[in-house]
Amino acid sequence: MDTMRERFATVASRLLDDDPRLAVVLAEIGVDGFRAAMDRHPDRVLNVGIREQLLVGVGGGLALTGMRPILHTFASFLVERPFEQVKLDFGHQGVGGVLVSAGGSYDWPAGGFTHMAPGDVALMDTLDGWTVHVPGHPDEAEALLRHAAAAGDDKVYVRLSLQTNEAARAVDGRRFLTVREGRAGTVVAVGPMLDGVLAATEGLDVTVLYATTVRPFDGAALRAAAGAADAADVVLVEPYLTGTSAAAAGEALQDTPHRVLGLGVRREELRRYGDMAAHLAAQGLDAASLRGRIAGFFGG
């Protein structure tokens, strides 16, 4: 199976052939996946070199001319390093585009903390009007990328990862999916966390919602699940900073007595990098750790 990032290059290259309004802007990373597209569309596949602020600035400039720019690099270089440009060149200018990141929270541990971005979605959450997609499978990444490319002038962030679920789900870029139903409470599994959550909650009487579009947050789905349960207790399992969606969940349930437990990546930097499985275990996000934390929250 191809990775989400490989699927992105394939799909974006095809979209360039079909839609003359689209342009892809790169900052050296990911160029090899667009060699053929660059030959076909040299004026719409641009590599600005290792200049991430320029990457975003060029994307904003293309959007001002009426183009639909797709920007791509690692999340730490796409969101964190040029955040001022994201805020001003898209938000302040009132234009849209598609930011597609790779690397996630710790996809490449050997790259060190410079190539990790567990706070990217929380940082994007400080800005107004951004849709945020977090696919959990390459097929979902393709569906959400196509949705983002066709989304008029909307501002969209697509977070790709090497971590994937075994099977794809029918995502629509809007709603949470109900994967399992129960009475003790609700667990929201974001993107690539779904398989671990399903394993962790096997035999527990809980509802599992699957979220691949986290902004806007599907408060209606959470309210419906909480209303059908015996208690409005919610666990959020996110592949980025712990508690990123806690405020959104609290707002959705503001008229209902509730408890929310956020599980995700802690703020402490892990300096023994290991591999992705080691990071999941160290963060308490492997299935065994999730089992204990979720069951404990719901009373065993």
Automatic annotation (TrEMBL):
Coiled coil: none annotated. Residues 2-168 form the Transketolase-like pyrimidine-binding domain. Pfam families: Transket_pyr. This is Transketolase family protein. It comes from Streptomyces ochraceiscleroticus. The lineage of its organism: Bacteria, Bacillati, Actinomycetota, Actinomycetes, Kitasatosporales.
